[in-house]
Each structure stands twice: as C-alpha cells, then as structure tokens.
Amino acid sequence: MENPSSSETQPPKYDLITVLSIDGGGIRGIIPGVILDYLESQLQEIDGDKDARLADYFDIISGTSTGGLVTAMLAAPDPKANNRPLFSAKDIVPFYLKNSPKIFPQTGGIFASLVNVGKALMGPKYDGKYLHELIRKILGDTMLHQTLTNVVIPAFDVKKLQPTIFSSFQLETEAALDVALSDICIATSAAPTYLPAHYFTKEDGQGKVIKEFNLIDGGLAANNPTLVAIREVTKKIIRKPDATPINPLDYDRFLVLSLGTGSNMSEQKYNAKAVSKWGILTWLVNSGSTPIIDCFSEASIDMVDYHNVVVFSALQSEDNYLRIQDNTLKGDLASVDVATKENLDNLVRVGEELLKKTVTRVNLDTGHYDPLPDQGTNAEALKSFQTAMENVSSPEIPVSKDENFITVLSIDGGGIRGIIPGVLLAYLESQLQELDGEDARLADYFDVIAGTSTGGLVAAMLTAPNPNANKRPLFSAKEIVPFYLQKSPQIFPHTRGVFGWLKNIAKTLTGPKYDGKYLHELIRKKLGDTKLHQTLTNVVIPTFDIKTLQPTIFSSFKLATEAALDVELSDICIATSAAPTFLPAHYFTKQDERGNVVREFNLVDGGVAANNPTLVAIRELTKQIIRKPNEIGISPLNYDRFLVLSLGTGSNKKEHKYDAKMVSKWGILSWVFKSGFTPIIHCFSEASNDMVDYHNCVVFRALQSEDNYLRIQDDTLKGDLASLDVATEENLNNLVIVGEKLLKKKVTRVNLDTGLYEPVPDKGTNEEALKRFAKSLSDARKKKKFDSQDRN
C-alpha cells in the first residue's frame, strides 16, 4: 500500500480495507505492544523484508488514549529515515518500560499514600509534565496530515460535551482538525482524575485562532475505537464512492484487528450489595481502582465488540474480525498507572501469554467471551492475518424483496428529563389515534421499544399489559407526563436551605443520594409480577453488571436462547435506573421451579452501557434476523428497511459549562460534584449518546435512507433543566414546556463532517416529522396485517 502523507485516502490493497484498532488503558498499552511486535515480525518474515512496518499494511490505524499514542508512534514519519515510521512495533514495549515510571511516578509508604489521596481529591493525580514534554520531543511538529497511513484518534471536548474525532478522512472537509500529533496524543490521554485536560488552538496563516479545543481522554467517547474507525471509512466512501472500489456497508471487505489492553472482568471485584451503599467517594476511589471509570470504559469496549461481532456474523465474515483481549487481569495488573518495575514486567508476560491463549469471540446469546478451539491460538490467528488479506472472498448479500418495515422506538436515559420524550410520545400517539382510532397505542405500531434508565421505565409503561384491559398497555402515552409530574418529587425528595444542602452533600459523599425505596415500591406496584416475555411488543432494556463488568441486555429476542433473562419487568426497571451515586445498585436472582438460583444479577444503570439504546435495539434485531431469516423476511444489513425513532431527554451542550482550563485543575471531588452536577457521568453519557447517533447517521446516509431515522433531541437546556433529579414543581413544569417547544423546532441531523447538529430546512419541524412518521407507522402496520391475513 502506498503511503499517502496527505489527507487523500489511498485505494486499499487487495480491494480490502485493513483496520488496526488499539484500546485505551494507560500502562496496559504494553499488552498490545507485545502483540504488535509479534505481528510485525510475522509480516517481515512473510514478505522477506526487515524494513516492513505496520503502517505499510494497514489502511487505517486507530487508537484511544494510550492506544492513540501507539497509533502516532506507528504512523508518524521519521524525518531522519526517509519517511519510514518513527517507531517499529518492537520499540513500543521498551518505550513503555523506560518512560512509564516517570509518567506515573510512584511514592511509597503510608504517609505518601495519604498525600496522594489528598492530591487526587483536589486535583489530577499526575501533573502530566513529563508525558507532555516526552510526546512533544518524539513527535515534534508533525501534523495529522503527515502520517504515513490514515489515523483515527478520538478525544472528548469537555466544553462542547461532544466527541472530537481526529481523522485523516476529515481533513478535506474540516481543515481545522489538521493539528500537531503531539496535541492530539496529549488530549486523548488526558484521563479525568489522572491527568489534566488539554487546551490548545488551531491558527491560520496570520496567527488568528480559527478553532479552540478543550479536550480530555478519548476513552469517554470510544475506549475501543474500532467502530469509530469503520464509520470514518464509511463516511469517506459515501463522499467519494469512485475512490474506493467497495460499497459503504460492504463490511465483508473490511479486515479488522482490534487489540484490547486487558481488563479485570473475571476478577468479579464488586457486587450489587456492596455497591448499593457506595457514595461518590467510593465510586471514584476503591482499592486503588476508579470503579465509575472502570464501568463506563468496560461497557464502551464491550458494546463496540458486540456490535462488530453482530455485523461480521451477519455477513458470515467472522474471520475478517479478530479481537484479542485478556479479561483475567487481577490487582495491579488491571491498573492504568501502577508503574513499578515488577508490574510493568508482569504486563509484558501477560502479553506473551495472551499470544498462546485460544482465540475468543463474544457469544451473541450470552454476551460472554467463549474460546474458539478450531481457530487456534492468538499467535496462530495473527500468522494467518496476512493470508486473510490475500484470500478473502466476498459473500453475496441477498436483497430483500419484502417491503415490510421493522419499526423501532428508542428512548434515552435522563432521570426527570423523561418528561421531554413523554411530551413527544403523547403527540405521536395522538396522531396515530387520528389515523386509526382512539384505541391506538404505541405498542401496536413498534416492533421494538427500547429504553435506558428513565427510558427503560417508559418502555415498560408502554408495553406491559394491563390485566384489566384485555392485552392493552398499562399506560397510554398521554399518561406518562402526569405520572412524572406526580411521582418525581417523591422519588427525588429535596431538602431546602443551607443545612439541607450540607446534609445532601454529606450523604452523597458516603452513600447514594437517594435510597430508592419509594421508586422501587412504585415500580413493583405498577408492574406487579409481569415478566419480560409478557410485554405486548418486543422490548430491549440495557443494564450493566457491576460484578462481571459487562452489559446485561434484557431483550425479548434473547429469551429463546437465554431463559434466565425472563425476569420481572419491575426488577429490570429498578436495575436500569440505578444510576451510580444517585440510586443504589440492584441485586436479584432468577430461580427455577424448585427455587434453585439459576442466575444472579448485580446491576446498575443501563446508561453505563448505552444511554442512547438505539444501536443496541438495531443490533438485537440483526441477531434475530441472523437466527431466523425466513421469519422476518429481510437481510441482516437491510437498514433501509428499518424505521427508527430515537428520542433524547435533552442536554446542556450549548451551555458550555466547562472548559479545559477549568477542568485541568479538577480532582476527584470536582469530577463527581460540581454545581449540582456529576461531570464525569455527564461526559460519559453525552459521549455515548453522540457516538450512537453518529453511527446511525452514517449507516442510514450510506443507504440514502436518512428519512428512515429520526432523532429528536434538545441540546439547549440550562441550569436545573439539565439536571436528573431537581424535582421541584417549577422545574418539572418547565420540562413540559421544553418538550412542547421541541415539537415546534426544526428537524436536526448530525453533520458527519463537524459532528454538530444542524437544522434540515426541507424537513420542517419535529411536529411535522412526527406526523409523517405516524403515517408511515400506520401504513406499515396495515401492510403487516394484510400480509398476515393473506398468508392465512
């Protein structure tokens, strides 16, 4: 493959697009370093060229945080070596062994530990000076456009509350992203509580600032950047279809190597009973770990792998996607910063042992990683990677002749802000009633209703059967808002005055802000003993298991293969709403007929895994199509046959509440409590929401089916309106007004070049769009009824 040394994407070798992706993980970057050294040695042996480098073989190298630094090392040109890469793969591990102790200096003794804790509470754990000087020294003034192959490195803008993706593919449309690689690497590594945020600017030829950046760790947006890299390529193909000889969704033409940095998933360090008593401090510091960051990072990594496995399985191209990860780390090995010689040397051994382990793949039914004995070891899989480049066949994707749509409703998490989608859903249902009669309910029209946290509760309200009304839903859409107005003040009680405020602070530091008793009783009273299999349409509700450090997706589609998920809706709703620091974690079990426990659940808020559950819902449907292709009647990747409505709960993005200069001084306390907000959770949630919408927009744009995907969100909230729990009468009523005004606003869509939401002039208002959506839903339902009668 030719080296572009510019923003132009080169045609891929062998008509394949080759992708290397490297996770974030601090000092654990040593583990993929060992793997990459082995891979490069195999390429040198196969091609008989000792000068062969990874940048010669991969069309895209993507990395987050420590993975972003490795990406730059592999792709930056060495001006002293005829523009060969600055580092060979075998240089990565020695680099980490030498420099990590200076990047993360360790102090011993009890008093030193107390000093470290005090410092971490009030400011970042490390000042970052050595790291910043080191990065600037090795990368110099190399700019993004000068890399020897295309790179994709995520960061997160703490001022705009949205991901910033530094991508070679974006330079043609957004030249302001062509900044120094050193700034990109410092930014993507700026892990909250560990290293200071990074502020820098892009200036034009006259020295005028054209863009400012307020950035923190890319792990908030995509700790596993594989899906981001694939989407960046997809965008490029959409823009210039003639430049790359494949179609935008020809995932079978991708050859992807995704490298993890290890995790302690198997250690099962936490459980719901312990976590249910945690306050802010314990969520941030527990036995040398940072549980809140661990949970969000592991969830992000797992969800990306889950999505990729579904897509490659749909094309029967599983061998085109190789994920190498070790989930068995324990103690210091799982840390991001314990840079003692012993621990660093042990990480090298972890990498070496990982090469000898059997290839694993996520089981789409259980979500667990299962060994694949017939695939051999990871070392053997890497040896065959070059062969795969030369011999990949392209299976035909059958095109469906069935014109039926699969209809999806998705509702974000957001506490009391569930009022906003409540207003929108009431309007949509009223439009359906105008078309089809007063008895029309949303569950009659959507094949899947997905919801996270407060959205999960709404999903259950709309789909649980009313025992007194012959298979009609427990709630109509118009009853959602009154329910929130009446119940929210009791779910989130507020004490007034200075002493009340101090009492709340003290309680929040040492335990969850609310005990959840009223919420739990209310949910159990409303939903009774209704089980997941009894919902009136399919539901998908994400949660996160704090013990296994994995998402648990409660999905109607999984029940055929995983009966243990058929639990009470009340337990699912309590679990998906158990927001860290706000409400206690939820422990419950599934028992068989004899009372034996067949599965235990240690769950927290689904927003840790997918605050916007749209992509999870689409992937659950895709899995079902793979399992039962004849029953559903469309191909797994016929996204143009999906009709998707995704409702946000509002955000305060436009408020620009934080910036890098402010955040760079924050310690643990400020990251978890600032002006009534919890910035660390706020940032993770906004990043998750945006990345899902970004992925969906790319896919539907690729199929020229943008009108099949409608996302309605208000990012102009300010003050108490943006809170999850300020349940005063004034604030709740104001949220109703926000929802009503949102109906009158223009339809917006994310700009794939800038990542910003822009009005779509020819699509009218959200109210008009929902009217059109109602007509499409009505038509789709009538066609399904007709087809069903015709078959009978």
From TrEMBL:
Keywords associated with the record: Hydrolase, Lipid degradation, Lipid metabolism, Plant defense, Transferase
GXGXXG, short sequence motif: residues: 24-29, 413-418
One of the record's GO molecular function terms: monoacylglycerol lipase activity
Top class in the EC scheme: hydrolase
Motif (DGA/G): 217-219, 605-607
Domain PNPLA: 20-230, 409-618
Active site location: 65 (nucleophile), 217 (proton acceptor), 453 (nucleophile), 605 (proton acceptor)
Matching InterPro entries: Acyl_Trfase/lysoPLipase, PNPLA_dom
PROSITE patterns listed in its UniProt record: PNPLA (PS51635)
Any Pfam family matching the protein: Patatin
Motif (GXSXG): 63-67, 451-455
Enzyme Commission code(s) on record: 3.1.1.-
GO biological process: one example: lipid catabolic process
Record's comment describing the protein's domains: The nitrogen atoms of the two glycine residues in the GGXR motif define the oxyanion hole, and stabilize the oxyanion that forms during the nucleophilic attack by the catalytic serine during substrate cleavage.
Its job: Lipolytic acyl hydrolase (LAH).
Family: Belongs to the patatin family.
Descriptive protein name: Patatin
Source species: Vigna unguiculata (Cowpea)
